[in-house]
Each structure stands twice: as structure tokens, then as C-alpha cells.
Amino acid sequence: RYDLPAFGDVSVAVGYANAEIYDVAVKYANTTGDLTTNINVGYSINKDGGSNVGGTSSDLLQAQAGIMQNSSGIFGVVTYSIESADNATAGTGDDTDAFYIKGGIKKGWSDVGKTTIYASLGLYNDQYGTGNDDGISGSEVQAFGLGVSQDVGKRLKVYGKYETLSLDVDGTAAAKTLYAGAEDLDLITFG
Predict the structure, then answer these.
(1) Contact by Cβ (8 Å): 27, 39
(2) Distance between CA 10 and CA 28 in Å, rounded?
(3) Alpha-carbon span 112 to 62, nearest angstrom
(4) Cα separations in angstroms, 30 against 40, 129, 184
(5) Residue 178: φ, ψ to 5°
(6) Selection from 39, 57, 37 nearest residue 48 by Cα
(7) What is the pLDDT of residues 54-85, one digit of tens each?
(8) Residue 153 in contact with residue 178, Cβ under 8 Å?
(9) Closest by alpha carbon to 91, among 31, 163, 170?
């Protein structure tokens, strides 16, 4: 990885790994008045074995934008990604995209450190698939979460998160029947 010299509020990094993986990331960060803004865009190409779904190669584009009002601590973040894998089996997650939004407040209500309270929503298209064995041709996973994290000094963060995931599948009648009774997955994380 090589980080180019910053150009004002913009920084660029390029990377190369394992003979056939290339990436570039562009980051913009600015604080003007009471607002902090971040915009990040990254693109990678993997010509050495594709992706986690097989295939001969893959490319991934991710973009993220965030804004925070510093005085109130109110913030929002939006993320989008799209990945394509060449020559992978259809229905295995060969072409996917995802959208994620998170909003909340980060405030120093005590001397211990800043507390962050947030809600998040994610939509993940065609990222679930067991191949054509089950007859799945497409999917959507919806994720909704609530979380809180507490900074303790400068080096420790304690957090908890509740998230529920819901799955919808497209495909054969047998696949729809097989997954129609799938329960939502509830996750609770502490760390």
C-alpha cells in the first residue's frame, strides 16, 4: 500500500497484493464551522481467484458519506457497495449490492468518555445463496439494529448491539417453500 501526499482535505491510497489484487481509495475529510464531513470511495479488482463465491475475478466498488454536527453530536452515515464476480455460478452471490444507513448521537454526557447511541438499517441484495442446490436465484437480507458504545478514556470502548436479520429469497417454488418459514435471526453482541 502506498499513501500519496494529502491534497488539502483529500487523500489517496493505492494498493497491490498477491500478484493480482489492485485497489485505490480516495478519502475526503473536512471540518467547517460546526460540521464534520467525510466521503470515502474505494475500488478493488481481484484477478487471482475471484471472490468468496468462486469465479475467475471480481471487482468491488464501495462509497460512504458521513456528516456530524459537532455541537449536538448528531450524525448520519450512508454506505453503498456493489460487487461483481466473473464466471461464478449464478445465484451464489456472483453479482451483489448492499445499502447501509446509520444515524445517532455521540456525546460526552460524563467524564468517563463519549457515549454513542445509534440505529442502523441494511439491505443486502443477492448476498445469500447456497448455489443452485436449493434453487435460489436471488435474495434480500434486511438488517435493523440498535446499539450503544461507551468510550472509557482514550483506549477502551465498551459496546452492545441488538440486530435482527430477515431473509427473502427468489427462485424455484421449492426454494421459496424451503425458506418461507425461516425465522428472523436476532443477534445480541457485547464487547
Answers:
(1) yes
(2) 5
(3) 35
(4) 12, 40, 40
(5) -60, -40
(6) 57
(7) 667 788 899 999 999 999 999 999 999 998 87
(8) no
(9) 170
- At 77, list the grid cell: 452515515
Buried b vs exposed e over 27-42: b needs ≥16 C-beta within 10 Å?
Answer: beeeeeeeeeebbbeb
Contact 38, 26 (CB under 8 A): no
pLDDT tens-digit readout, 6-26:
899 999 999 998 878 899 999
CB-count exposure of residue 188 (10 Å: 0-12, 13-18, 19+): exposed
Strand boundaries in the chain, DSSP class E: 2-3, 10-17, 21-32, 35-46, 57-69, 74-86, 95-110, 113-125, 136-152, 156-171, 185-190
Number of residues that make up the chain:
191
